[in-house]
Input
Amino acid sequence: ERECLQEGVYLLPNFFDGQEVLHIVQQLLDQAPFRHMKTPGGRRMAVALTNCGTVGWISDTKGYRYSPTDPLTNTPWPPMPAALLSLARSAAEKCGYEDFRPDSCLINRYDPGSALSPHQDRNENDFSQPIISLSIGRSAMFQLYGQERGGKAVNIRLNDGDILVFGGPARLNFHGVRRLLPDAPAHMSDGRINLTLRQAL
Ligand code: MD5
Ligand code: FE
Output
């Protein structure tokens, strides 16, 4: 089933097998492990991240951007696994995005106590393309704002196996992840992993 939460924002509850995608993620980590990047202001990000695909999202004191190489190893990011690509394409299609071609997947790891403060995703070249978000592990409360940082947020509970699709007028909306909730699947009880598939180039 598909729930429209706001114009351009769709929740596909229990759309995929979290344990299967967790295994896919684990196979990428030898080549490109999770690490805490620095914000442009020099602070350590609470959320650990890695990437796969043609380019990956990075942050350091020079700013936020997409890079074809992993700054830890100066080698290309692991290629996008075919199973992730087809999952994202089928979710996008269900929400009316007919030919989604993500070239980047940012993988975030939330440990207990870590959160992601409200921000916009605006380092991509084409904002007409949606972002597809996959949640694995502990449930979390996601906060969706409007075009401005302030104002009222809609709280959305994200569970293992859920997909959120952001497109159209919501593509540049502010959003954040407030906290992890106690509920967790057996295959991942300690934290949460979020994958966001994007067309960056
Ligand atoms: C997460 N990740 O749960 C979220 C899910 C990130 C990030 O925010 O930047 O890594 S993606 C949520 C998202 C993406 C693009 C637009 C909007 C939300 N939106 O308009 O609300 O780790
Ligand atoms: Fe974001």
Q: What stands out?
A: The helical segments are 18-28, 82-94. DSSP finds two helices and 15 strands in the chain. The chain has a mean pLDDT of 97.
